Amino acid sequence: ILYVTGKLNSKFVLILFAILFGFVFVPKFLKKQFRNNLVLKPGTDLRKLWEKAPFAVTFKVYIFNITNADVVLMGGKPHVEQIGPYIFDEWKEKIDLVDNEEADTVAFDMVNTFIFRQDLSDGLTGNEIVTIPHLLIMGGLIAVQRDKEPLLEMATKAMTTIFKPKSPFLTAPVMDILFNGVGIDCSSEEFEAMSFCKALENEKPIKVVNDTYLKFSVMGGANATSMGRFEVFRGIKDIMQLGEVVKFDDEEEVDAWDGECNEIIGTDSTIFAPFHDKKDILYAFAPDLCRSLGAEYLKPSSYNHVPTGYYSMNFGDIKGDPRQHCFCRDQDVEKCPPSGTLDLYPCTGAPLIASKPQFLDADETLAKNIDGLNPNRAEHDIFLHLEMMTSTPLSAAKRLQFALDCEPVEKFELMSKLPQTVIPLMWVEESVHLNTTYTGIFRAVYIFLSVNSFIKYSTMIFGILGLTFVVYRIKNEMDEKKNLIQTVAAAVNKSASLTSAESVTKSAIMTAEKIVANGNA
């Protein structure tokens, strides 16, 4: 009995050890390590990596060249030719950092620097000549017509004086459109032209060359300059707040929309709090869109042999969702953007529409109204492979298309017959794919976790099997004892029966003898 009891105790101890080690101690140890190391504490390795990334993000640009501008001017269907990618190294750095110990926040300016990689751009040099809608002429006059129609005549006169246009389309080298800049002659002393030039001087896409000459580019103003001042939680007091934006440009919300749509939700997209659940939406604030965007978990995945969660983002149907009607201009449902798109006019002051590239997942009439598009999920979707414990993006691609919400402007002859359509201008991809130097760290952790899982479950299994064997042995021993007792009892009963029978026989014989004797008498 003592031997059996000892065996039972050892198996219980083995199972208890497996449960405590595998399900309590290891997870608790890992969470403690994460809480100590995955915070933006000054001087830590994570803080240094977060302040200045040791590798460049890959930034790609695709331009839509309009091949039939003359047809479009007469109201025809635009035909576009996609040219790209133009590939850049994008270096991200946070500067002018100020920590607030009491609030557990850190404020900084985000600076992105773009370096053209002609060697990776498949033969493209940036000198390719393309035709796109002139954003200052076409975009500017459409914007004035929408919100400041009394000033439209003044605006058309300014455009005519400054640009002397033969077309509202711009034909220029790609790199001039993107970074180098397209010239704006502000030498005229006419009131309308001078007013227009003065208004442009403080705009981010504008570079002031001298008193009478400006340059306009799509991205030049964003290169090596601050995109705004962020204030985010460091996660030291509450790790679940790690990286969440508290303020942008000293404001707790944006001022582009109505009501709740101005709320800033999520991080700056460079870091996320650990321990995210699959049901959690990953939000990131995008200043250039004046709003936060959310990615949702779709399925389990892996990257470089590391288990990940696959996330994607969909712009949804703003018009069909009453909760998002504050993203519609003037909260007018009829002014809501088409399904799968975002109206950037309240944010930028320009008639721009954002969507996934080539109108993927958007109202299908948008792609049908443009010849030359071929949307497909592999090339145009937004995705994220997220390591779920630390919430680290191991591989991700953010892809956005920008298009002009075109309409005719009858008071400007060159634009009087334009079609009512959305013309794609360009799309960009910002992507990161960590190499094995970085993913190897996560793989080592998962190997440790796999070993831990093997140990805890195998220990439990062997413990349970051992316990089962011990119980089986006990049962067998008890059965053997029971059988022995029954055998002994049967033998005793049999012996007792034989003894009783012998006594009866003897008694019967004696009785018979007496009867015989009496008979003889």
TrEMBL record:
This is Sensory neuron membrane protein 1. The chain crosses the membrane at residues 12-30, 454-472. Its main location: membrane. GO terms for cellular component: cytoplasm; plasma membrane. Coiled coil: none annotated. Signal peptide: none annotated. Belongs to the CD36 family. InterPro entries: CD36_fam (IPR002159).
